[in-house]
């Protein structure tokens, strides 16, 4: 969709300013897509006033860009970073979010609310206020429907080695139980999510039909009254901006530009990007092994090491000098979209977060998967076994969503996987080709007239109708 220029100034002046509250979860991988989505809404409907309801720590990320600013309201909550992402801290933050958000909604009485699916209690609050509630999901429809099936099958981690999903379209999905998220252990959680999904006016999913069509269809049938597949918003919204480096409050800093300048010196498709999203951190021993594996692979690499990983004891002696001509380490936050769009990037070693998968897919970059937690192993199943644009970095040892159960991935495995994957016309050339074919599919979905943009228009018209007619369902 292009910004709506068909409205005259007097049209705009006579329009009611609809007030919509957006309530993201505090994690960056949830907040940034909602901020990008807010930008898309504003570009298309300047008569809607959007307010992001965030924690104080997140105000700097609440605007997708200065081009389409939103209002900001905060509720009290301690900072949540990768290091503090332990269950007790998250539980406390979720509790504070519920109290703070409820208070703000009651005080300001917006015309509608769009909230992260991780806040299932929001549907009841919206129903009390008699306003439409739309949920926003940053999860693949594949992982949502697979988890729902496992939940219905009463799969409990620990009882079996492997489980097979029953009743889904596409190839058979069989997974080791260790790779399923601990959320399946919790009695009511998935049921609560499922119920709030069906209670809500509809669900917006940051995904694209071109990537997971049959699972979008399944999601539409089983998970929501109305479903809108508008993604990948982290790719489509930045297209409106001057620079894809300047996103979500990130400063266009020297280090961010220097990694792009370094990529300029490398050959086409010759560099492996190594980055594991915004939440998961590695133990020092694993970082050390990864550093040695990257060195032994003899490949060019750009490695993003998070602030939370930075004690530096993982750096092997003399390593920085030895890899200086073919390795570049970014400390902290990297401009991932701009890096993936660079012609020098030939592969992406990643954790299978859904945003990163979509960003790689849009850029036509094949993935080497190293899932770590949450629903990442389920996403891996989709990209490796269903779609075929990725390969597993390690099939061997014990992999698990739980930190205490996983084995260290040895340097030899990492080195071998990387060099095999990067071999020109090697055994993974079909994976590379498949990934390249996906680029245009995803980019056409977010171009004018594409499936994601049509779903965005349908959502906007349904939302305006619902606010006009005060329908909650
Ligand atoms: N990201 C980034 N720079 C970084 C790390 C992450 O821009 O250094 C962005 C990445 O482009 C993606 C998001 O943060 O949009 C991470 O989301 P994802 O779903 O992949 O992973 P999670 O953070 O949930 O593990």
UniProtKB/TrEMBL annotation:
Keywords: Transferase. GO terms for molecular function: UDP-glucosyltransferase activity. The keyword Transferase applies. CDD domains: GT1_Gtf-like. It holds the Pfam family UDPGT. PANTHER family: GLYCOSYLTRANSFERASE. Belongs to the UDP-glycosyltransferase family. This is Glycosyltransferase. It comes from Rhynchospora pubera.
């Amino acid at each position: 969709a292009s910004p709506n220029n068909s409205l005259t100034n007097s049209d705009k002046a006579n329009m009611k300013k609809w007030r919509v509250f957006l309530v993201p979860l505090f994690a960056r991988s949830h907040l940034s897509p909602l901020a990008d989505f807010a930008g898309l809404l504003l570009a298309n409907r300047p008569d809607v006033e959007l307010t992001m309801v965030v924690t104080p720590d997140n105000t700097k990320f609440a605007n997708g860009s200065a081009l389409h600013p939103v209002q900001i309201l905060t509720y009290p909550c301690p900072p949540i970073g990768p290091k503090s992402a332990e269950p007790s801290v998250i539980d406390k933050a979720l509790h504070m979010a519920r109290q703070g958000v409820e208070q703000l909604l009651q005080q300001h009485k917006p015309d509608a609310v769009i909230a992260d699916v991780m806040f299932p209690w929001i549907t009841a609050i919206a129903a009390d206020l008699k306003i439409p509630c739309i949920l926003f999901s940053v999860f693949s429809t594949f992982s949502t429907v697979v988890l729902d099936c496992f939940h219905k099958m009463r799969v409990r981690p620990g009882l079996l080695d492997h489980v097979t999903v029953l009743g889904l379209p596409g190839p058979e999905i069989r997974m080791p139980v260790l790779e399923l998220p601990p959320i399946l252990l919790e009695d009511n959680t998935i049921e609560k999510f499922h119920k709030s999904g069906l209670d809500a006016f509809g669900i917006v999913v940051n995904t694209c039909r071109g990537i997971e069509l049959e699972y979008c269809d399944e999601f539409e049938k089983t998970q929501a009254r109305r479903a809108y597949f508008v993604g990948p918003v982290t790719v489509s919204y930045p297209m409106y901006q001057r620079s894809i480096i300047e996103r979500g409050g990130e400063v266009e800093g020297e280090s961010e530009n220097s990694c792009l300048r370094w990529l300029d010196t490398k050959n086409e498709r010759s560099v492996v990007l190594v980055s594991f999203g915004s939440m998961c951190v590695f133990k020092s021993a694993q970082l050390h092994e990864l550093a040695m594996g990257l060195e032994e692979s003899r490949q060019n690499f750009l490695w993003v090491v998070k602030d939370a990983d930075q004690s530096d004891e993982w750096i092997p002696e003399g390593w920085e000098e030895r890899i200086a001509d073919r390795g570049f380490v970014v400390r902290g936050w990297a401009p991932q979209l701009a890096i993936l769009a660079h012609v020098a990037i030939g592969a992406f070693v990643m954790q299978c977060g859904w945003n990163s998968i979509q960003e790689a897919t849009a850029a036509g970059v094949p993935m080497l998967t190293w899932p770590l937690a949450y629903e990442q192993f389920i996403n891996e199943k989709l990209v490796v076994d269903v779609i075929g644009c990725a390969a597993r970095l390690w099939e061997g040892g014990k992999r698990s969503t739980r930190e205490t159960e996983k084995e260290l991935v040895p340097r030899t495995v990492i080195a071998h996987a990387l060099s095999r994957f990067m071999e020109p016309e090697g055994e993974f050339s079909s994976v590379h080709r498949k990934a390249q074919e996906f680029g245009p599919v995803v980019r056409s979905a977010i171009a004018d007239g594409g499936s994601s943009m049509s779903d965005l228009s349908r959502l906007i018209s349904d939302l305006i109708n619902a606010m006009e007619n005060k329908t909650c369902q």
